[in-house]
């Protein structure tokens, strides 16, 4: 069962990369918000697990966790990890844009880290510094609140960090 879940989570990531040019899909929710997906295919994959890529609730957009990891199962140095993180932040940016928000609107990040993973060739501070360096490439305005939490495991397997974000982005009326 664990490998099935991991396989489906990887399918979400793969589907997201392949569908970046598709039109966003919004499932209307209460109070004028709703679940946001990058495309109909992204929605189909996420529907299997009952979650949205993001959810707009009034002026706020809640981004579901996006995972960065050593997908080949081979240890990564800081440079390889940063390249993987750039893909993760790019995905997060696409989902935020589909919800009419941007990285500059992010007011909170909660990150879940596998400190000391054998899949990262560095210590806790080097791991955190890699995330902080890439974050600065995507978020150039005021710093959002950020909590970095160490966990023992992520889904899918071989994940090194999961990023969850909240953006404040009043809709254009």
Name the overall outline. globular
CATH superfamily: RutC-like
For the record, the CATH class is Alpha Beta
Strand content: 25-35%
Can you characterise this structure?
By secondary structure, the protein is an alpha+beta fold. It contains four helices and seven strands, in the order αββαββαβαββ. It has helices spanning 2-18, 40-47, 78-98, 124-138; strands at residues 25-28, 34-37, 54-57, 60-69, 106-113, 145-150, 159-168. Strands 1-2-3-4-7-5-6 form a seven-stranded mixed sheet. The longest helix has 21 residues, at 78-98. It is globular, with a radius of gyration of 16 Å. Mean pLDDT is 87; it is low at 1-20.
List keywords for this structure.
60s Ribosomal Protein L30, Chain: A, 4 helices, seven-stranded mixed β-sheet, 173 residues, alpha+beta
Condensed summary:
It is built from 4 helices and 7 strands; from the N terminus they run αββαββαβαββ. The chain is of the alpha+beta class.
């Amino acid at each position: 069962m664990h490998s099935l879940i991991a396989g489906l989570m990887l399918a979400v990531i793969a589907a997201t990369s392949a569908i970046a040019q598709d039109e966003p899909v919004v499932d209307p929710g209460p109070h004028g918000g709703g679940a946001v997906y990058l495309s109909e295919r992204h929605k189909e994959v996420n529907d299997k697990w009952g979650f949205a890529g993001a959810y707009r609730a009034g002026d706020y957009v809640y981004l579901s966790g996006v995972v960065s990891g050593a997908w080949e199962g081979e240890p990564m140095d800081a440079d390889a990890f940063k390249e993987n993180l750039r893909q993760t932040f790019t995905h997060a940016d696409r989902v935020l844009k589909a919800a009419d928000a941007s990285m500059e609107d992010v007011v909170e990040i909660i990150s879940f880290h596998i400190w000391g993973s054998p899949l990262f060739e560095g210590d806790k501070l080097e791991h955190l510094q890699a995330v902080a360096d890439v974050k600065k490439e995507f978020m150039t305005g005021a710093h959002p609140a950020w909590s970095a939490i160490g966990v023992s495991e992520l889904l899918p397997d071989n994940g090194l960090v999961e990023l969850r974000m909240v953006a404040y982005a009043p809709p254009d009326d």
